[in-house]
Design goal:
Blueprint: H1 2-24, H2 27-48, H3 83-91, E1 109-124, E2 149-163, E3 166-178, E4 187-201, E5 208-216, H4 221-224, H5 237-240, E6 247-255, H6 258-269, E7 281-286, E8 301-311, E9 323-332, E10 334-335, E11 349-350, E12 352-360, E13 365-380, E14 385-400, E15 410-422, E16 431-443, E17 449-460, E18 471-483
Antiparallel strand pairs: 1-2, 1-18, 2-3, 3-4, 4-5, 5-6, 6-7, 7-8, 8-9, 9-12, 10-11, 12-13, 13-14, 14-15, 15-16, 16-17, 17-18
Helix pairs in contact: 1-2
Length: 484
Amino acid sequence: MQRRIITLAVGSGVFLASAGGASAQTVQDLQRQIDELKATIAELKAAQGGPGGSVMQTAQSSPPTAAPSALAPARAAPTMVPPSATIMQASTPPQPVSAPRKPWYETINVRGYTQLRFNEIVSGDRRAPDGVSRLRSVHDGGIGDDTNFTFRRIRLVLEGDLSDRVSFYLQPDFASSVSNQSGGERREAFVQLRDAYVDTFLDADKRFSLRFGQSKVPYGWENMQSSSNRLTLDRSDGINSAVPSERDIGVIGFYTPRHVDRIWSRLQKDGQKLFGKYGAFGIGVFNGQGINRTETNDGVMTVLAATWPFELDGLGQRWTGQVLEIGGALIRNRVQPEIRDGGTSDRAFADDRIGVHAILYPRPLGFQAEWNWGRGPEYDVVQQAITTRALNGGYVQAMGRVKRSLVGPFMPYARWQYYRGGWKALTNAPRLETDELELGIEFQPVPPLELTIAYSHMKRLEADERRTGRAEGDLIRTQLQWNY
């Protein structure tokens, strides 16, 4: 290093000496510049040999100069930066600068979806005399006589992070209906609150979380699945009767092991239809009266839920990548249904259930089934009053998945559902008797659009305690969904 410094300094001195001779044309100028250069080299040598072996001085110290010549004015000594100092400055790592955290309102993610439906009863009991069941469904008000296009859902989701461990979720629906108008006419496109909750994560890995507010009750795999992600047009009567509209106000705790989260992330990346941001294990307490309804007693609805995915790769090459998910849930509640005379029942009825589920994700064929048993409020036509009665029901579903075709990805399915029990969300908790077979196919011509076409054969007791018998008929159903 010392030799390099001396070489650079001498070379610079020769250049300066040549330039000085050309301009001053005097021996005195050349001698003065040589003396200045010698003094600079001496300082560099002294610094090179100092403690630490690093050159830390620059031309900040004024070198000794020769007396100015009487024939020419003195020239200022050139400022020189030792090469070793330059090397040290360049090798110093930059200090990390932490970016300021964005305000929470800049982290909000906005998304949503809309579903437009068209139902047509091609044969069967679209009309019936007073007191006799017509072909209707508790899940779709667009099934009926003289109906055409309806909006099934118009959802808008706002979600974001309030901090590293706190996030929020808000979802209104702009396609709700109101039936209790003064003239008896059903009105469409009312805004209704669906979800409004905050998640608090108890650990840095976000395995444990507490959810506060109005959200889905963790009962039933299909109930937890978003309608935007569900293959069939409607949820089954048997499972959904436990929590109609799927939501209530309360507090839930979730836990998801890392292994389970890894499997679900892989399935989501593969494009499988999962059930959403809910844990492998959940426990919650809720009001128990249902979505957007005033609590009427001091009791709470308690729920326990668990689900676990199993990778089937060990069964052989045919099962590579296949996942089977099984689980179950318990619910205990006391509910006071609305009565036809107005208000709610003075008596709280037992509403207890146990349910199980199993899902074999389609690769390319899959299977899905849920069933539940229990007891709940139901109108007894003999006693002319609401009583607590046994119930049971569920569904069995087969589906396929074609990821690539000339018309884009598509999924055919076949589902049979069955239910015998009350429907506590309607006035007087009427009894339902449902047998239904649905065959359908979902197309996705472009990512934002999903088109579902289905045929249904229904046999149903209408959800009105003033009507008897079961209506039967065949329907063609279509739905166009666009995601944004």
